[in-house]
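Lab channel / #folding
Pinned by the channel admin:
"Please post every new chain as: sequence first, then the structure tokens as a reply. Keep commentary short and put observations after the output so the thread stays searchable."

First post following the new format, from NK:
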Amino acid sequence: MPEIIIYTSNFCPYCTMAKRLLTAKGASYKELNVDTTHGLREEMMQKTKRRTVPQIYINKQHIGGFDDLRALDLKKGLDPLLVAS
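Reply from TO:
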């Protein structure tokens, strides 16, 4: 199973949708909540050059936010990433 990391925040509907999509695909992920860990939002912004959550990584590849994840799924590009090790 690939390593999946999701930067999230509290009360974020796009974060919830991203987690639901990955869960529906049978994928497990590590959630990093930027609201509960000091400095984590800044770390995320440094890595991704984006301010919004969610920010999703699969095997250290930056996927982007929920819209990017969903677009990848619609193009049939998500499933191969989820089975790669």
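NK: The chain has one domain: 4-83.
TO: also worth noting, The CA atoms of residues 29 and 82 lie 11 Å apart.
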